[in-house]
Write a structure and sequence with these properties.
4-stranded antiparallel sheet; 4-stranded mixed sheet; alpha+beta; binds flavin-adenine dinucleotide; 10 strands
Length: 381
């Protein structure tokens, strides 16, 4: 069952395409993009032309088809080929920004907003988090007040991925009363009067993925930009959370695998006291433990993905998979830096970037603690 899902001839070919794309279009420039703090817009077009941007999205929306396993395979292979979770976050922000719109099925909104994004011509961000509401999504307070055929939007969004480059924001707003039932999703174009995007926020990691604050100051948005019906926003956000959490779990185990691979190469060639590191039992056991943690994370995450794809109710398992993969990744990236010694602390060494980049995986898409809360709530329900 497992190999029939993850290791088919088509997916092996997809991996090969992703690997070649990463080696040709990304790796020669990644350090420059890290320093610049953003990916170039042209990369989105190149990725679309290579058939990678629209994977997992329907052709009716401008995608190239495929299912979630294809989408996750692209993210996984990009990291295994030397990319990073920051790269995946910046290039595939539409993976969190578009699914609500597409699921709602309004073809005119899909044509206006999804098709240009999947063609690599526009960039979308998902704007949910606010200065006073992160984990507590139902507590957000950006307000959209109905006024004739428009909404007038006022509020602030924080830590929004790709916001400095985005043309449109899939924005969680309060159209109704306090609590989850008062939330809606609204597409807000960046060029509307009253939209102000901050300078890029300076971060610990994910440097090539720009992050910003967005302020909406009485921004007038047509009511036709609403996704679904008023008050349906919280349900839409929760529905798409499973995909985001599983994607983060994949990024976590792929980062761990990449750091393991790099560490195995390093300990074979690095000699101390006249012998390779790989000859020392403490080193051999450390890489063995890294491999065990990585494999458990991958195997469990993939098993949950298969059940989720089959339509099983796996909310609890999705939360457990995210934590399992994130904890494994945290341990493995730390070990990888340690095994590289002083070089592990140097910017020129790839594991240094993964160490910084991976720290966000236990914070974004629902923190470790919120995942544990989800599990305990479902266990004790
Ligand atoms: C680089 C980056 C990119 C991001 N990209 C996006 C994006 O594109 N779009 C978007 O909308 N958001 C984005 N975010 C925001 C991210 O989703 C939030 O930071 C995250 O959900 C946590 O919310 P918070 O920062 O408000 O932390 P808080 O909710 O304030 O949590 C702080 C700490 O308290 C813990 N905590 C909170 N509530 C409880 C509780 N009930 N019980 C126990 N512990 C609790 C948390 O686990 C955490 O450890 C991004 C963040 C970063 C850093």
């Amino acid at each position: 069952m497992h190999d029939q899902t993850w290791d088919t001839a088509e997916r092996r070919a997809l991996r090969e395409t992703v690997r070649r794309f990463t080696e040709r279009e990304i790796l020669p420039h990644l350090t420059d993009w890290e320093e610049a703090g953003a990916l170039p817009r042209s990369l989105h077009r190149t990725a679309a032309d290579a058939g990678l941007l629209g994977i997992g999205f329907p052709e009716t929306a401008g995608g190239v088809g495929g299912d979630p396993v294809d989408t996750l395979t692209v993210a996984e292979e990009m990291i295994l080929a030397g990319g990073s979770s920051g790269l995946v976050a910046g290039l595939f922000t539409h993976g969190i920004g578009l699914p609500h719109l597409i699921a709602a099925g309004d073809q005119s909104l899909i044509e206006r907003f999804a098709r240009p994004v999947l063609a690599g011509e526009a960039i979308v961000s998902l704007a949910v988090t606010e200065p006073e509401a992160g984990s507590d999504v139902a507590g957000l307070c950006t307000r959209a007040v109905a006024d004739g055929d428009d909404y007038v939007v006022t509020g602030t969004k924080l830590f929004i991925t790709s916001a400095t480059r985005a043309d449109v924001f899939t924005t969680a707003v309060r159209t109704g009363d306090d609590g989850a039932g008062g939330l809606s999703l609204l597409m807000i174009e960046r060029d509307r009067p009253g939209v102000e995007v901050s300078a890029p926020l300076k971060k610990m990691g994910w440097w090539c993925s720009d992050t910003a604050e967005i302020r909406f100051d009485a921004v007038r948005v047509p009511a036709g930009n609403l996704i679904g019906s008023p008050g349906s926003g919280f349900g839409q956000i929760m529905q798409q959370f499973a995909a985001e959490r599983l994607s983060i779990a994949v990024q976590a185990y792929a980062t761990a695998q990449r750091c393991l691979d790099l560490s195995l190469d390093h300990v074979r060639v690095r000699e101390t006291f006249g012998r390779p590191l790989a000859s020392r039992q403490v080193v051999r056991h450390r890489v063995a433990e890294m491999a065990r943690q990585t494999d458990v994370a991958r195997t469990y995450t993939r098993a949950v993905i298969e059940r989720w794809r089959a339509g099983d109710d796996v909310l609890r398992e999705v939360a457990m998979a995210k934590n399992t993969a994130v904890f494994a990744c945290d341990a493995v990236v730390d070990d990888a830096v340690q095994l590289h010694g002083g070089m592990g602390y140097m910017r020129e060494t790839e594991v240094e970037r993964h160490y910084r980049d991976s720290r966000i995986l236990g914070i974004g898409g629902g923190t470790n603690e919120i995942m544990t809360e989800v599990v305990s709530r479902l266990l004790l329900a």
